[in-house]
Amino acid sequence: MPVIIALVLLNGRQEDENFLFLKLFGYLFLATLGLRLIFLPIPLGFLLFYFLLRPKSKLNEDQKHAAAWWGLGLYVVSLLISIMP
C-alpha cells in the first residue's frame, strides 16, 4: 500500500527532483512509525517529520507533506485495526 500511495503522489509532482520516489516513500514510511506509552499511542514518526525533518527545499513540498499525512492516516488505520475484536 505505501508503494502505491508513493507512486500516486509521484504522478502529481510539480517539478523534476532526483530520487523523489524514495523521498516520498521515506516520508510515508517514517510517518507510520509510532510509539505506545502504556495505553497512549503516539505518532512518533509524524511528529519527527513535522518538527524536525520538514523539507528544506521548496521542490515538490506539497507532495512530501501529502506523503507524511498519508503515513499518519495509515498509522491511524493500523491502530483501529489493532483494537478491533
Please render the helix and strand layout as text.
Elements (H helix, E strand, L loop, with lengths): L1 H10 L8 H12 L3 E3 L2 E3 L1 H8 L9 H23 L2
Helix pairs in contact: 1-2, 1-4, 2-3, 2-4
Condensed summary:
With 85 residues, the protein is mainly α. 62% of the residues lie in helices and 7% in strands.
Question: What would you say this structure looks like, in words?
Answer:
- The chain is mostly helical.
- The chain is 62% helix and 7% strand.
- It is built from 4 helices and 2 strands, in the order ααββαα.
- The chain has a two-stranded antiparallel sheet with strand order 1-2.
- β1 and β2 form a beta hairpin.
- α1 packs across α2, α1 packs antiparallel against α4 and α2 runs parallel beside α4.
- The mean pLDDT is 89.
| Overall pLDDT level | 89
Distance separating the two termini: 23 Å
Biggest beta sheet attributes? 2 strands, antiparallel
Q: What does the overall shape look like? A: globular
Structural class: mainly alpha
Number of strands: 2
Task: Count up the helices.
Answer: 4
Radius of gyration: 14 Å
> What is the multimeric organization of the chains shown?
single chain
User: Which regions are unreliable across 5 or more consecutive residues at pLDDT < 50?
Assistant: none
Percent of residues in beta strands: 5-15%
Strand order of the largest sheet: 1-2
Helix content: 55-70%
Series of secondary-structure elements, N-terminal to C-terminal:
HHEEHH
